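Q: I have 295 residues here and want to know how they pack in 3D. Can you give me a structure?
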Amino acid sequence: MMKIATAAYPLDWFDSWGQYEDKLSGWVAQAAGQGADLLVFPEYGAMELATLAGREVAGDLERSLFAVSERMEDANALHARLAQAHGVHILGASGPVAAEGPRPVNRAHFFAPSGEMGHQDKQIMTRFEREDWNVASGGPLKLFETALGKIGVLICYDSEFPLFGRVLREADLILVPSCTEALSGFSRVRIGAMARALENQCVTVMSSLVGPADWNEAVEIDTGRGGIFGPPDTGFPATGVIAEGVMDEPGWTYAEVDLDAIAHVRADGVVLNRSHWDEQTPRVESVTIQRLGRK
């Protein structure tokens, strides 16, 4: 049995690195103090690091990308220390990282209590990311093998694409850090997270940015809440909702998850979506057109 904490996380303005360190340390200590084994922060939560470069830089779409990227190494070191100190796994808030290509990618770093670190890049950019912000697609999807089980990450929009979920079919948990401006965007990601839990008969964990951050156009309004979902089947709630927070209210949402329950529903659920997936293939190779009432 593991305990998961997923964040509804507000962006803050910082005048010093110590303020950021205090904030993150407080959030991690609170969740760890409640017995959480896995902490999940949201997409673009790292944008608050841009405030350390001053208002002019933080408010500029282009310059803020690189301001955050320049701070990520320090932020990663802090996350690693906190993961070790509290004995927890942490999916850090994603942010722009100037990696190998000509444009920054949207990257979330994953920290183990051992001090080891991995990362997952966003695969498909939203219209704002590609048309206005010019954030690039990153490296391939990964499956992290951890003491908590096999874990995948689908960053926000990526959760809305079922083939990504299928590639991660061995994952016990799929983490879905998100940043959504409107309720409609939040709903799309929530539906995607719940669909991936249904298809893979696994648990998905959604985290959200919440509240205003009027200093940067990319994150100025954020809507969401934490959510933990499973297949609506044997051993899980009939709604598929294991736990959800209060809309737009900052804080942690907690739930206990049993890997044995995931294994059981995959082996002997009322339905076996994950096992029956391949039966789709021969039935979708061609579509028969039948005309009714048309000349």
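Q: Anything worth noting?
A: The chain has one domain: 2-277. Residues 61-86 form the longest helix (26 residues).
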